[in-house]
Amino acid sequence: MKNTLAINGGQPVRKNLFPGHYIIGEEEKKAIINFIDSKEDLSGFLGGWNDKFLGGKNVRKFEDNWSEFINCKYTVSFNSNTSGLVSAIGAAGIEPGDEVIVTPYTMSATATAIIAYQGIPVFADIDEKSFCLNPIEVEKKISTRTKAIMTTGIFGHPSHMDGLLKLAKKHNLVVIEDAAQAPGAIYKNSKIGSKADMTVFSLNVHKHIHTGEGGMVTTNNDDFANRLRLIRNHGEAVLESKQQADISNCFGFNLRLTEIQAVMAIEQLKKLPQLLKDRIENANFLSEKLSQIPGIEKANVQKDCQHVYYVQPFKIKSEDLGIGRDKFIEAVSKELPTAEDRKHGHLISIGFCTPLYLLPLFQKKIAFGKNHWPFSYDKQSMSIDYSIGICPITEYIEKNEIFINDFIRPPANLKDMKDVVNAFEKVYDNKKQIS
Ligand SMILES: Cc1ncc(COP(=O)(O)O)c(C=O)c1O
Q1: 80 in contact with ligand 1, CB cutoff 6 A
Q2: pLDDT (average), residues 250-263
Q3: Count: domains in the chain
Q4: pLDDT confidence of residue 2
Q5: Within a domain: residue 305?
Q6: How far, in Å, from the CA of 168 to the mean position of ligand 1?
Q7: How far is 327 from 345, CA to CA, in rounded Å?
């Protein structure tokens, strides 16, 4: 029977896989072959105070191109967004026991970057519309120890930057935005990456554009740019030659991008505007159609902002839908296949992540060694509250309301999106079949 739900053994709405997000093509291949033929070194970095301290020709070119795209003064590339986040915390001057206010609704690295410099993450709740860190909640968590705010442009929606910057000015705080999911997102009519003190982007394989792994930090601040570069490339080795006055947090690591990654990144950046346009078109189509189903709410995009939909979030109000979120989404997922590049798992899921403070790291306050460092810094650090209920909006949304989808990734197009809409409508119209 045509209307029998796939979850009950009926024919699914679609059987053929959704297209893979294969965005590396002839342009990258050609650029890499040209680079290899040039016989240049695969990495242009040296950890000494010489003309190789800032990396090779292609790394620098990509950094310039990214700065132009964002409209900021500096881009410092890294081998991942995580490396960029850690380095931004170091560059911000975070010391043991310093508190950094952070969103709990993000990938774990946003918070663990703080711990890498032995700072103490303090979680503040999100706003229920954009799922981003709420400045009102941030203000409640500010103490004499607070040194920075770490916010995430979650799912591709920009953070509430004006509110956060206002607090930062009042309390002398550094604002870092994790924009791993939000390259090209627009806040108050300009691209994110030039308002926060530092903004961190990712080039990992799942992102809008990628080079397998990679990342970059943008800033307009000379001192932050200098410190980011020191941390990226064994800063301790060059401090004397460079005559760096304040050497705190300036020892470094090897967090460098290779020339081949940079060559790919240059080509990928050229593709980003079209990839964003296609993704947004798919997301807008799903927003319009799915929100016509009672109980399904599209993501709220704030005024003068552009969401870039790393994934597309929706909320479900079960009372209006007439069926619980988890059962409904399970039935929809049975109507639709996965994608060519996703051998396991679906392109749709309930929830996004456990609110970070509920992870064992925070529940047990165990990070470095077995003796609770850095939380054991002193009584105040050890008493930071990570108990269930500290961010009720995050917990409620994650547990009851949100689902996210990945169907929107180009080259999927509106024809593919129609299958998604048909699946939702079929399940809604036949929801009585679900026990
Ligand atoms: C919000 C956020 N932060 C940080 C990361 C880590 O990025 P990377 O894998 O480039 O280190 C990710 C990656 O998924 C992310 O989505």
Answers
A1: yes
A2: 98
A3: 1
A4: 73
A5: no
A6: 24
A7: 17
